[in-house]
Design brief:
This protein is of the alpha/beta class. Helices cover 51% and strands 12% of the residues. The protein contains twelve helices and eight strands. β2, α4 and β3 form a beta-alpha-beta unit.
């Protein structure tokens, strides 16, 4: 058994209950990968997207679903060290990734404040465009269970809205394209355990802003996502299933219990809903 085979074996043995089965559950529950699909699996070089690529590769090899995966890496302006690390990991894990380049880091470097939102939108646009060129109808991203929980909390605390992260969405700018999140039921803690178990090294975001934040990071870091992570960690000490509860809550919304909500671009306020109930 070579190194790649050992990594693959760990997914279906040591991490069968925490990674492999939750991945299969998400694929089936939300109908993320179906017969006839051609999917662009997007690799950023981090732990999540590299695990995603491996999982999709194993699912394809299993043959239960007749689909075609294409593995793509967008280089938004990585430094030489990070670019080489991605190439090394793709070779090590035997992932036949196609690399293409963009100038996203150069463009967002001139943005004042926090350019992360613009960077994410530009990345997604480039990925959709390349996937479409390759004849793919879907792009797969490495957002996981923990991202879902954190995004929900961030929306409540800082965005004044109760909004989750969907397991799949239709693209608004690329007709006929979908975005899927096959790691939707996989906890980040288990991704980290898988990485460490196999002594793997991956890059992080690797943008200039992130590199600077890591140099300055302390207990007063202003990262909203980091704050959400810390809050969840504290809550889990007293309520170990708090993440599961939040996850299930966004699947069991009772609209009759909300004084207002938004659906399909329309806002429904309390008075309108209350009047309708009484009629």
């Amino acid at each position: 058994m070579n190194y790649c085979e050992s990594v693959e074996n760990s997914i279906t043995s040591e991490f069968r209950e925490t990674i492999w089965l939750p991945f299969l559950d998400a694929v089936k529950r939300y109908k993320l990968i179906e017969n006839g699909d051609k999917i662009a699996v997007c690799i950023s070089g981090g732990k999540d997207s590299m695990l995603l690529a491996k999982l999709v590769q194993l699912l394809h090899r299993q043959g239960n679903i007749n689909f075609t995966p294409v593995f793509i890496v967008m280089d938004p302006g990585y430094n030489e060290k990070n670019r080489l690390q991605i190439e090394k990991n793709c070779a090590l894990l035997e992932i036949p990734a196609q690399i293409f380049e963009s100038d996203i880091f150069d463009v967002t470097a001139s943005v004042k404040g926090n350019p992360c939102y613009l960077c994410a939108r530009m990345r997604r646009g480039h990925l959709y465009a390349r996937a479409k060129e390759l004849g793919c109808g879907k792009i797969a991203l490495g957002h996981h269970f923990s991202d879902v929980i954190e995004t929900t909390l961030i929306g409540m605390f800082y965005g004044s809205q109760l909004q989750g992260m969907m397991p799949k969405i239709h693209s608004t700018n690329f007709e006929g394209m979908e975005l899927i999140r096959p790691l939707y039921c996989v906890n980040e803690e288990d991704v980290i355990k898988w990485r460490d178990f196999n002594s793997l090294e991956f890059i992080r975001c690797a943008c200039r802003l992130t590199e600077q934040c890591e140099l300055e990071e302390d207990d007063n870091s202003s990262s909203k996502r980091l704050e959400a992570k810390r809050l969840i960690k504290r809550l889990k000490k007293d309520y170990p299933d708090v993440e599961k509860s939040i996850f299930e809550s966004i699947h069991n919304l009772d609209l009759n219990g909300f004084p207002g909500y938004k659906a399909n671009g329309r806002v429904y306020d309390f008075n309108e809903l209350y009047s309708s109930d009484s009629e």
